[in-house]
Amino acid sequence: MPAMRTAARPATTRCVVVLLAWVGVLAAITTIAQRYGFSGLAVNRAALIHAWAGDGLYSYRSPLTNLGTALPPPALFLVSPAAFLPLALAGWLTALAGVAALGLSMVALVGPVARRYGRRPWPVVLAASALALTVEPVRAALGLGTLDLLVFGLVTADIVALRRGAWARSRAAWWPGRPASSPPRGRTPADLLRRGWATGAWAGLGVGLATALAVTPAFFIVYLTVTKQWRAALTATGTAASAAVAALLISPDETAAWFGEVLWRIDRTGPVDAIVNQSLAGVLARIYDSTTAPVLLWLSFSLLLIAVGLIRARSAHADGDEIAAFTLIGLTGAIVGPVTGTHELIWILPTILILIDAAARRRATRTTPGRTRRPGLAFAVAAGTTYLLFVLAPMWSLHDPFSANCYALALVLLVNALPWRPGVAPAFPINRWLGRTPTRPRRTTAAAGANAEKWQPSPDRRVGEPRNRPGGPLPAATIPPPREPGR
C-alpha cells in the first residue's frame, strides 16, 4: 500500500501541474487579448473577406489603421478558416496554436540544457515557458494573432532535425550493430516515420514552410548554403518553391500581385518610422525624422550586419553550437528587415537561454585565498538585462530617443557579441568519447604539412581513436556508447 501511494503521488503532482499550467495559459491569453484585441488577425481576416467579395486581396485597407494584409499567399491560405469564424474564436485558436508551438520549442531548446546540468527537464521547461509568456515579442504575437510563434516552431524543428541527423551519422560511423540511418526492415508508414525521426530526414522542411509563411526565414536558407548543409538547403528551397507554385495554381492573380508589387514595398507591414518598427530602417527613419529610411545608408549598414551575422553564425556552427548559429541568423534577419514589429523578435528567447547557459558553464573559481573569480557574471547580467528589457518594453511608456530604439540597439549588440557554447549542439558527426572540444574540420592543404589531422580516419584504425596512442588501440568493450546531443 505505501508503494502504491508513492507511485500515485508523482502522477497526481503532474496532473496538478498540468492543470495549473493550462489555467495560467488561459489567463495569460485572456489578459493579452484584452490589450491587443487580435488586431493583426482582424486585418488579415477582413482582407480575405474583401477578396472573396470580388475585390483585390492586397488592395484592402483597414478603416482604423489604413493598413492592409502583408502575408504571403500560402500564409493567407492557412489563415483563411478564420474568415468563417468569429474574430474572438479565431484569435483564441491562433493563440493556442502559438502556445503549443512555443511549448514544443521550449522542450527542444531548454530540455537538453536541463538534462546536461542533471535537472529534470519538465519543471525547467514549464518555468521557461511561463517566463517566455511574459516577454513582449510573445505577448505581441499572441495578442495580435500573428503566425510568428508557428514560424519559430518550424525553424526550431529544423534545428532538432540537424542535430538528430548528426547524431545518427556519428552512431553509424563507429557504433557496432545496425545503424539508425540504415533502411528499415519494413516499408510501412510507421517504419518510414521512425527512420525519418531517427535520422532527422526532415531537415530543411521547417525552414521552407517558414519561408512560405513569412519572408525573413529566407535568411536561414542562405545560412544553410553558406555552411554547406546542402541537403537541408535544397529541401528548404524546394519546400518554399513548392508552396509558391501551389499558391500560384490556386490563386494566380493574388500570387502575381504579391511577387510583383507587395513584396518589394518597404512599408508593406506598416509605417517605417513607427515606434513599433524596431529594425535598422526604423532607427534611421526616426533619426532623420522622415517617413522612410535613407535607402543607401540602410542598405550599407544592413549588408555589414548581414556579413557579421553570417560570419559569426558560421563560426558557431563550426564550433558545434547550431542553436546559437540559428539564433544569430534570426536576430540578423530581424534587424535588417525594413519593418520589424515587436512580434517578430521571437529569437530573443533562445538568446536569453544561450546567455544563461554560457554563464552557468563558467562557474566561479577561487584564484587566491581571498579572491574568487566569476567569469560567467557578465553573461548572467546580460541575460537578466535582456529579459527585463523585453519584458518592460520601455518604448511604450518612455518617450526618448534611446527608449524608442532600445530593441533595435539590443539586436545590433547581440548580433555582434552573442556567445556560443562549443560542442553543445553540433550539426555534424563528432567523436564524443575523446573528451575534446568538437570543432568542424576544415580541408587541409599541402602547405599545412604532412602531419595535419584529417577528418576521415584511416581504414586501419577505429573511428575516434587517437593516432599515436601508446599500448595499441582501445578494445571495443571500452568504447562508450554515443549519446544523443544534449543528453
TrEMBL record:
Region (Disordered) residue spans: 435-487
Composition-biased stretches (Pro residues): 478-487
Membrane topology: Multi-pass membrane protein
Keywords associated with the record: Cell membrane, Membrane, Transferase, Transmembrane, Transmembrane helix
Single GO term (MF): hexosyltransferase activity
Keyword Endoplasmic reticulum assigned: no
Residues forming coiled coils: none
Protein name, per record: Alpha-1,2-mannosyltransferase
Provenance organism: Actinoplanes nipponensis
Lineage start: Bacteria, Bacillati, Actinomycetota, Actinomycetes, Micromonosporales
